[in-house]
Amino acid sequence: MARRLLSICFPRLASDISLRRRPLEGPFALTLRASNAEQLHCLNQAASRAGLHRGMALADARAICPGLSTRPADPLREDRALEELRRWVSRYGPHAAKDGADGLIVDISGVAHLFGGETEMIADLEARLARAGISAKSAIAETRGAAWALARRGGGVIPEGALLTRLGPMPVSALQIAPDVAEGLARLGLHKIADLTTVPRA
Protein backbone atom coordinates (compact mmCIF):
# COMPACT_ATOMS: atom_id res chain seq x y z
CA MET A 1 0.00 0.00 0.00
CA ALA A 2 1.38 3.41 -0.98
CA ARG A 3 1.95 5.80 1.89
CA ARG A 4 -0.23 8.90 1.74
CA LEU A 5 0.09 11.84 4.11
CA LEU A 6 -2.34 14.68 4.79
CA SER A 7 -0.85 18.01 5.87
CA ILE A 8 -3.14 20.67 7.34
CA CYS A 9 -2.05 24.28 7.79
CA PHE A 10 -3.92 26.71 10.06
CA PRO A 11 -2.61 30.14 9.00
CA ARG A 12 -4.86 32.10 11.38
CA LEU A 13 -5.59 29.61 14.15
CA ALA A 14 -5.01 31.94 17.12
CA SER A 15 -7.14 34.78 15.71
CA ASP A 16 -9.83 32.34 14.53
CA ILE A 17 -10.11 30.86 18.03
CA SER A 18 -10.21 34.30 19.66
CA LEU A 19 -12.89 35.58 17.28
CA ARG A 20 -15.01 32.45 17.78
CA ARG A 21 -15.22 33.29 21.49
CA ARG A 22 -15.74 37.05 21.07
CA PRO A 23 -16.63 38.04 17.49
CA LEU A 24 -15.46 41.37 16.06
CA GLU A 25 -15.86 43.01 12.67
CA GLY A 26 -13.05 44.52 10.63
CA PRO A 27 -9.25 44.22 10.89
CA PHE A 28 -8.16 42.27 13.96
CA ALA A 29 -4.86 40.98 15.35
CA LEU A 30 -3.46 39.30 18.43
CA THR A 31 -0.29 40.86 19.85
CA LEU A 32 2.78 39.57 21.67
CA ARG A 33 5.53 41.53 23.39
CA ALA A 34 8.95 40.96 21.80
CA SER A 35 12.15 43.03 21.81
CA ASN A 36 10.52 45.41 24.28
CA ALA A 37 7.67 46.24 21.89
CA GLU A 38 4.22 44.94 21.04
CA GLN A 39 4.17 43.05 17.73
CA LEU A 40 1.42 41.47 15.66
CA HIS A 41 1.25 37.73 16.30
CA CYS A 42 -1.77 36.49 14.34
CA LEU A 43 -4.10 38.42 12.00
CA ASN A 44 -7.49 37.87 10.47
CA GLN A 45 -8.02 38.21 6.71
CA ALA A 46 -9.22 41.80 6.96
CA ALA A 47 -6.00 42.85 8.71
CA SER A 48 -3.87 41.06 6.11
CA ARG A 49 -5.79 42.74 3.30
CA ALA A 50 -5.05 46.09 4.95
CA GLY A 51 -1.32 45.45 4.43
CA LEU A 52 -0.43 44.25 7.92
CA HIS A 53 1.69 41.19 8.62
CA ARG A 54 2.94 38.99 11.44
CA GLY A 55 5.92 40.46 13.31
CA MET A 56 5.00 44.06 12.45
CA ALA A 57 5.27 46.54 15.34
CA LEU A 58 1.84 47.42 16.71
CA ALA A 59 2.60 51.15 16.46
CA ASP A 60 3.38 50.79 12.75
CA ALA A 61 0.27 48.66 12.23
CA ARG A 62 -1.97 51.30 13.80
CA ALA A 63 -0.41 53.99 11.61
CA ILE A 64 -1.33 51.97 8.51
CA CYS A 65 -4.69 50.76 9.81
CA PRO A 66 -6.17 53.05 12.50
CA GLY A 67 -9.26 50.83 12.77
CA LEU A 68 -7.27 47.77 13.88
CA SER A 69 -8.72 45.92 16.88
CA THR A 70 -6.30 43.94 19.05
CA ARG A 71 -6.19 41.51 21.95
CA PRO A 72 -3.21 39.96 23.78
CA ALA A 73 -2.18 36.59 22.35
CA ASP A 74 -2.40 33.48 24.51
CA PRO A 75 0.17 30.94 23.23
CA LEU A 76 -0.97 28.30 25.72
CA ARG A 77 -4.56 28.50 24.50
CA GLU A 78 -3.31 28.38 20.92
CA ASP A 79 -1.35 25.19 21.69
CA ARG A 80 -4.38 23.64 23.40
CA ALA A 81 -6.52 24.45 20.38
CA LEU A 82 -4.04 22.72 18.07
CA GLU A 83 -4.04 19.67 20.35
CA GLU A 84 -7.85 19.55 20.25
CA LEU A 85 -7.71 19.71 16.45
CA ARG A 86 -5.12 16.91 16.43
CA ARG A 87 -7.54 14.66 18.30
CA TRP A 88 -10.42 15.69 16.03
CA VAL A 89 -8.59 14.92 12.76
CA SER A 90 -8.13 11.31 13.87
CA ARG A 91 -11.46 10.80 12.10
CA TYR A 92 -9.45 11.02 8.85
CA GLY A 93 -6.59 8.73 9.87
CA PRO A 94 -5.48 6.81 12.97
CA HIS A 95 -2.10 8.55 13.27
CA ALA A 96 -2.11 12.34 13.62
CA ALA A 97 0.62 14.58 15.01
CA LYS A 98 1.41 18.26 15.40
CA ASP A 99 3.60 19.65 12.64
CA GLY A 100 5.06 22.89 13.92
CA ALA A 101 3.03 25.60 15.62
CA ASP A 102 0.48 25.96 12.82
CA GLY A 103 -0.08 22.52 11.38
CA LEU A 104 -0.92 18.85 11.64
CA ILE A 105 0.22 15.77 9.73
CA VAL A 106 -2.03 12.72 9.34
CA ASP A 107 -1.22 9.31 7.87
CA ILE A 108 -4.23 8.54 5.66
CA SER A 109 -2.79 5.50 3.87
CA GLY A 110 -5.64 3.24 2.77
CA VAL A 111 -8.32 5.51 4.27
CA ALA A 112 -9.29 8.04 1.58
CA HIS A 113 -11.71 5.69 -0.20
CA LEU A 114 -13.98 5.88 2.87
CA PHE A 115 -14.57 9.55 1.97
CA GLY A 116 -14.94 9.00 -1.75
CA GLY A 117 -11.30 9.77 -2.58
CA GLU A 118 -8.53 12.14 -1.56
CA THR A 119 -10.03 15.25 -3.15
CA GLU A 120 -13.34 14.54 -1.44
CA MET A 121 -11.57 13.97 1.88
CA ILE A 122 -9.93 17.40 1.69
CA ALA A 123 -13.24 19.03 0.75
CA ASP A 124 -14.98 17.38 3.72
CA LEU A 125 -12.20 18.40 6.11
CA GLU A 126 -12.02 22.02 5.04
CA ALA A 127 -15.82 22.41 4.93
CA ARG A 128 -16.17 21.13 8.50
CA LEU A 129 -13.42 23.46 9.73
CA ALA A 130 -14.94 26.43 7.87
CA ARG A 131 -18.30 25.79 9.55
CA ALA A 132 -16.45 25.89 12.87
CA GLY A 133 -14.89 29.25 11.96
CA ILE A 134 -11.37 27.90 11.46
CA SER A 135 -9.36 28.71 8.33
CA ALA A 136 -7.31 25.83 6.93
CA LYS A 137 -5.49 24.66 3.83
CA SER A 138 -4.68 21.00 3.34
CA ALA A 139 -2.74 18.84 0.93
CA ILE A 140 -2.09 15.15 0.33
CA ALA A 141 1.14 13.66 -1.04
CA GLU A 142 3.39 10.64 -0.63
CA THR A 143 5.97 12.48 1.50
CA ARG A 144 5.65 14.75 4.50
CA GLY A 145 7.72 17.53 2.96
CA ALA A 146 5.67 17.59 -0.23
CA ALA A 147 2.35 17.66 1.61
CA TRP A 148 3.68 20.40 3.94
CA ALA A 149 4.83 22.56 1.02
CA LEU A 150 1.62 22.22 -0.97
CA ALA A 151 -0.61 22.91 2.05
CA ARG A 152 1.12 26.27 2.42
CA ARG A 153 0.94 27.03 -1.30
CA GLY A 154 -2.76 26.63 -1.97
CA GLY A 155 -3.40 22.99 -1.05
CA GLY A 156 -4.55 20.09 -3.18
CA VAL A 157 -3.53 16.53 -4.01
CA ILE A 158 -0.28 15.29 -5.58
CA PRO A 159 -0.90 11.90 -7.23
CA GLU A 160 1.58 9.15 -6.54
CA GLY A 161 4.72 9.62 -8.65
CA ALA A 162 3.97 13.24 -9.57
CA LEU A 163 5.97 15.05 -6.88
CA LEU A 164 8.40 16.84 -9.18
CA THR A 165 5.71 17.78 -11.68
CA ARG A 166 3.72 19.61 -8.99
CA LEU A 167 6.49 20.89 -6.73
CA GLY A 168 9.22 21.51 -9.32
CA PRO A 169 8.07 25.04 -10.33
CA MET A 170 7.81 26.18 -6.68
CA PRO A 171 10.58 28.32 -5.14
CA VAL A 172 13.01 26.51 -2.82
CA SER A 173 11.62 28.63 0.03
CA ALA A 174 8.47 26.47 -0.14
CA LEU A 175 10.43 23.61 1.45
CA GLN A 176 10.91 23.10 5.19
CA ILE A 177 14.26 24.88 5.24
CA ALA A 178 15.50 27.95 7.06
CA PRO A 179 15.23 31.29 5.20
CA ASP A 180 19.02 31.71 5.17
CA VAL A 181 19.41 28.29 3.53
CA ALA A 182 16.86 29.24 0.85
CA GLU A 183 18.74 32.51 0.25
CA GLY A 184 22.04 30.63 -0.03
CA LEU A 185 20.58 28.23 -2.59
CA ALA A 186 19.21 31.14 -4.60
CA ARG A 187 22.67 32.75 -4.66
CA LEU A 188 23.95 29.51 -6.18
CA GLY A 189 21.33 29.78 -8.91
CA LEU A 190 19.03 27.17 -7.37
CA HIS A 191 15.78 29.13 -7.34
CA LYS A 192 13.18 26.40 -7.92
CA ILE A 193 12.72 22.99 -6.34
CA ALA A 194 13.31 21.41 -9.76
CA ASP A 195 16.77 23.02 -9.82
CA LEU A 196 17.79 20.92 -6.82
CA THR A 197 17.39 17.69 -8.79
CA THR A 198 20.26 18.62 -11.10
CA VAL A 199 22.95 18.77 -8.37
CA PRO A 200 24.35 16.13 -5.99
CA ARG A 201 22.60 15.90 -2.61
CA ALA A 202 25.76 16.99 -0.76
What would you note in describing this structure?
Among the domains are: 60 residues, MutS, DNA mismatch repair protein, domain I, CATH 3.40.1170; 29 residues, no CATH class. Helices cover 37% and strands 19% of the residues. It has a five-stranded mixed sheet with strand order 5-6-1-7-8, with helices on both faces. A three-stranded mixed sheet has the order 3-2-4. The longest helix is centred in the middle third of the chain and has 14 residues. The radius of gyration is 19 Å and the shape is globular. The chain starts with a strand and ends in a 6-residue tail after the last helix.
Summed up:
The protein has helices at residues 13-21, 45-49, 58-64, 75-88, 118-131, 144-151, 163-167, 179-187, 193-196; strands spanning 5-9, 28-34, 37-43, 69-72, 95-98, 103-107, 137-141, 156-157. By secondary structure, the chain is of the alpha/beta class.
